[in-house]
Input
Amino acid sequence: MGSPYRVNRVRELLRRELSEIIQHLGDPRVLMLTVVDVEPARDLKSAKIFVSALGDEAQQQQALAALRHSLGFIRREVAKRVSLRQVPEFTLVYDQTTERAARVGALLNQVKTQSDA
Output
């Protein structure tokens, strides 16, 4: 099992490398994606990639599908760039935190303008 310190170092390293790899995939659909976080398992055999996407729901789904299709290539690229005994198996998780924060901010602004009027 990995120590919490090692897991956090691997988390940051994977987040940085995955962001760079995804931005250079050459698929215009995945350019709208941002790697928000990476959550490696304690044993470092698997990792969840948390991503957010711009665009409407259909565009977001297309981007996620394209990224899922590229996970094998992405894993091989990570293996080339990162010195780990075993490169984790990746799973994608869509993170709606940014969208929710924007919606809450818009609602708060709306309430503020209504109370000012």
